[in-house]
Amino acid sequence: MEVLYKSTRSDSAPISASKAILKGLSDDGGLFVPTSVPALDRPLMDFASMTYQETAYQVMKLLLTDYTEEELRGCIERAYDSKFDIPEITRLHKTSDAWYLELYHGATIAFKDMALSILPHLMITAAKKNHEDKQIVILTATSGDTGKAALAGFAGVEGTKIIVFYPKDGVSSIQERQMVTQKGDNTCVIGIKGNFDDAQNGVKKIFTDRAMKEELAQAGYQFSSANSINIGRLVPQIVYYVYSYGRLLKDGVISAGDPVNFVVPTGNFGNILAAFYAMKMGLPVGKLICASNSNKVLFDFFRTGSYDRNRDFILTSSPSMDILISSNLERLIYFLTGNDAAENAALMKDLTEKGVYSVTDQMREKMDVFFGGYADEEATAAQIRRIYEKDGYVLDPHTAVASAVYDQYLAETGDRTPAVIDFTASPFKFERAVMKALGQPSDMSDLDLADRLSEVSGDAVPEAVNSLRTAEVLHKTVCEKDGMADEVRKFLGL
Q1: Rounded to whole angstroms, how far apart are CA atoms 422 and 165?
Q2: Which phi and psi angles does 425 have, rounded to 5°?
Q3: Is 307 inside any structural domain?
Q4: Strand, helix or coil at 341?
Q5: Is residue 358 in some structural domain?
Q6: Does the residue 205 lie in any domain?
Q7: Dihedral sign computed on CA atoms, order 122, 128, 131, 136
Q8: pLDDT at 292
Q9: What pLDDT score does 32 carry?
Q10: Category of 29 on φ-ψ map: left (φ > 0), alpha (ψ -120 to 50) or beta
Q11: Sequence-distant (≥ 6) Cβ neighbours of residue 379 within 8 angstroms
């Protein structure tokens, strides 16, 4: 059965998966969602013996139905290869209380690699399938990790250009260094004087500017996105939840049909939404534990039913979660309205104009699978130290937020259902915060800190960090948040 994709904000005609991936964002500003969510068509026990690549095919074939088997397997084969530093692509690490799903073994040592390794291949295949002759311009806002992962994925890819905007003072120094040293004539990295929400809003504004879209078309370009607003980012993320369930089956931790809790450090809501879709496809899920940092807009939403971005923006040690407008939440809201595009559009209009919206009691009842929690800076640092002292395992700040919230969940509920915690980035991306949390000296250069963290953790410095020692800064542009469109024109020579 073909799965089509429609906008969350209008009842315009649905389009194929490949067209939705090419467009990235609907013309009305909505996000593409599947018209139906297909069920997994293999017995759960089968996933116990599958490789990551085979699991990816079995999941993605159900949602990307206009890709042929040859096309989809080709994309998967090119994406999940020696770019990852372990052959199994991701793995589960058991500690005293939970299993950590290590999602940082890709080229840029963050979970974004899991989807952004395949997105360029899905997109180029989609362009050929749909006989597109325009160059694809990837326009992306990043809170730290998406930017580098997207740049690495699209650098040198024929028929594409990529422009990444990031908050100049809102990412870790390693994250920034990874981006501004990116090679490739088709790449452009720009810091903005603002926060991630400013960058994300600016990108959405450019996407929905009809005059600019026409200007690009005349010059032979079309926009698309590598953010998780692109369904081609979201679908590959579903895979690792199914894969982790298969690993627990293989290890005899669970039997087929037993529920598993997933704990996800969350900013833009894409990663935990992928777990929600996995559940909708038939994966047995107990609870989806949504972990926020001090920017706890999602925690407040799950506790009150009101989403309110009217609050101070806090810079934390987990910058990829420093977000007040969680774009992917719109896909959940659309589901909660009963797929009512008009009702969803009205709520999103309230968010834009008033900064706040509230869902009904009936909608809140449909959210009972979610548990919201948050960890402030003190709790995050304490958790890094606690897990290291207890289990000899070093977490990055984002994963520590999730780990601390899971402890809160256990204390509040006593629920001992097996839990998988997403380990979303290597601690080497945030070594200053990690070393401070461990009570180690942190007043030294980033790369010296990496060497010291290697000694403390017993893990080798990843190549993604080692390569920065001699990397030249190639991208130096910084702009005001209202100057983003002008920078796009400049890079494209318009």
Answers
A1: 26
A2: -155, 150
A3: yes
A4: helix
A5: yes
A6: no
A7: positive
A8: 98
A9: 97
A10: left
A11: 404
Altogether, the residues listed in the chain come to a count of 494
Number of H helices, E strands in the chain: 21, 15
- 94 has which bridge partners? 99
Residue 201 has which token pair? 């809003």
DSSP letter, residue 38: P
Between strands 32-34 and 5-7, the pairing is antiparallel
Number of domains in the chain: 1
Q: Domain for residue 406, yes or no? A: yes
- Phi, psi of 296, deg, nearest 5: -95, 45
CATH number at residue 253: 3.40.50.1100
Task: Enter the tokens of residue 287.
Answer: 């609870």
Query: In this predicted structure, what is the pLDDT of residue 347?
Result: 97
The C-alpha R_g of the chain, in whole angstroms, comes to 21
CA-CA distance, 323 to 341, in Å (whole number)?
25
Q: What is the pLDDT of residue 480?
A: 96
For 475, counting Cβ atoms within 10 Å of its Cβ (0-12 exposed, 13-18 middle, 19+ buried), the class is middle
User: Is residue 160 a contact partner of residue 186, using CB atoms and an 8 Å limit?
Assistant: yes
**Alpha carbon of 74 to those of 119, 230, 267, 403, 455: distances in Å?**
12, 20, 31, 36, 40
Q: How much is the pLDDT for 256?
A: 98
pTM: 0.93
Domain that holds residue 411: 91-109+236-459
Asked if residues 7 and 31 have their Cβ atoms less than 8 Å apart, the reply is yes
Contacts of 367 (CB under 8 A, 6+ apart): 302, 332, 336, 359
The parts of the chain modelled with pLDDT lower than 70 are none
Catalytic residues: 112
Which of helix, strand or coil describes residue 187? strand
Residue 474 confidence (pLDDT): 96
- Distance, in Å, from the CA atom of 431 to the CA atom of 473, rounded to the nearest integer, reads 21
SS3 63: helix
pLDDT given at position 207: 87
| DSSP label at residue 254 | S
Summarize pLDDT for 343-381 with one digit per residue, the tens. Answer: 999 999 999 999 999 999 999 999 999 999 999 999 999
Q: Tokens 């159900």, residue?
A: 62
Neighbours of 35 (CB within 10 A): 11
Residues 121 and 136: their CA atoms lie apart, in Å, by 13
Residue with tokens 């997207």: 150
